[in-house]
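JOB MANIFEST
job_type = single_chain_structure
chain_count = 1
residues = 273
[input]
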Amino acid sequence: MLTALYVPANRPDRFGKAVAAGPDLVVFDLEDAVPVDDKADARGWAIAWIAAFTGRTPVEVRVNAPGTPWIEDDLAAVAAVPGARVRLPKVESADDIRQVLDQVPSARITALIESPLGLERAFEIATADPRVVAVALGEADLSSSLGVDGPGGLAWARGRLVSASRAAGLGAPMMSVYPHVSDEEGLRRTSLEGRALGFVGRTAIHPRQLPVIVEAFTPSATQVADAAALLAAVEKAGLADGGVIVLPDGRMVDPAMLGRAREIVELMAKIDL
């Protein structure tokens, strides 16, 4: 997945529009986007729409955080939807994951890490259960907790999450949202920064952000060609069994470089489907 789009669960008029915008995943938000007085109605609208949805776009529900007054009702509602995907905010331990799975055994969970404690336990959270399918940062809350400003202050946290996700066998994580909807250049710049750190894809808060995200995380034609040429040269030389070759452009290649080249080629194949 390269794109996930949040839609406020108290705005049923936007549900169909969110799917029609073409993201790889639609996230119905019961948490931050919904005022307290609207929580119950938003939950009912979202779950009813998801239960009736017959399209192919995957959908996920961001429930309220563990320990809040709404989490139990959120999970009870989500449990009624077969194959539910749950985006769990403010995860700080494997126990937070297990408590959700006790109520929704069939859930596939994306764990949002939004505190220093959660960040320190990122690998523990990512490996809490095979039903954890992704980890991600909640950067607004995390920035506040860490007392940092700007993307530079989150560079270490972002790298830590990428490492934990990879180590857990979950692959590359998606980046957190970029909150300035009209700043396409800022979205593009920070997405490229995230790509350099190892992220693949990003969540969005408005459909207009989706094309920029896809552009930023799609390998260039040169990168794809270079990766394909590297793999072909390695196969021709039998390098998979060990050794080193030098490509015509002077690059020295060993088996350690194969993984990244394969990822680029495979990602492009999935994007083209």
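[summary]
DSSP finds 13 helices and nine strands in the chain.
Residues 221-237 form the longest helix (17 residues).
exit_status = 0
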